Amino acid sequence: MAIDRWLLEQHQSGKHPPTLRFYTWSPPAISLGYHQRQYPEYWQHLTWLGQKLDLVRRPTGGRAVLHQGDLTYAIVTSGLTGSRVQVYEKICEFLIQGWRSLGVELNYGTAGRGYIHNPNCFSTATSADLVLPDGAKLIGSAQLRRNGVILQHGSIRLQPDAELFAQVFGTESFTTVLLPQSLSMEKIIAALITAASNCFDMQIEVKPLSQSEWEEILAKPISEANSQLI
Fold first, then answer.
1. Is the dihedral of CA 116, 121, 123, 129 positive or negative?
2. Residue 10: pLDDT above 50?
3. Mind listing the pLDDT tens digit for each residue in 88-112?
4. Over the stretch 31-51, which tens digit does the pLDDT of each residue have?
């Protein structure tokens, strides 16, 4: 979360180009939406496979997301015009095309009436989220805009653990995600990078953060990065 926020700030100041980032979580964590103030106290003491779950706050809005068995994507860009929904759709097009190339069709969700009162992001799907043909939510996304620069990131559910989800949200919150077994993490990322290159008509250079970039990110006050442990 702190890296996503840092990338937004770097792009905003003209120091970094538009960026597409993928990452996973170790240990697993629950990320809270920026404005989400209420959550069960026991979330602060959850463990899984002997590891304590991190509890962090996103710089973007939305409901709580359990990051275990998922792939997180983040896009930082600028120059996109239109309403929030229109910008979501422009950015999400690479997700739709990338998964279509892997044989998986996705559609936009429609939020139920209980969305605003539900702490679990993946128990409902809004027009900013992408669902499978059976209605199961595959990708939940959230967005932050700052002076024309956009950070959009989201969680792609790949191999969620049903027992851990039940611990966090209750058994009624879990829906099975059925994906082709041949899809590896590497294959999914490669397909999404190709789709992003085509959708945004740009050349993508794949590289990790440099040592100096890591040092700059780690030197930032935790509260400033909005990624503090709760």
1. positive
2. yes
3. 999 999 999 999 999 999 999 875 5
4. 999 988 889 999 999 999 999
Q: Which helix or strand (DSSP H or E) is residue 98 part of?
A: helix 84-101
Q: Is 121 a catalytic site residue?
A: yes
Residues in Cβ contact with 151 at an 8 Å cutoff, skipping those fewer than 6 apart: 4, 5, 7, 8, 59, 60, 74, 75, 76, 143, 144, 145
Whether the Cβ atoms of residue 79 and residue 94 lie closer than 8 Å to each other:
no
The catalytic residue among 121, 132, 150, 191 is 121
CB 150 within 8 A of CB 16: no
Phi, psi of 81 (to 5 degrees): -115, 165
Close Cβ partners of 113 (under 8 Å, ≥ 6 residues apart): none
Whole-number pLDDT of residue 191 = 97
Give pLDDT tens digits for 120-177. Answer: 444 455 667 899 998 888 999 999 999 999 999 999 999 889 899 999 988 766 777 8
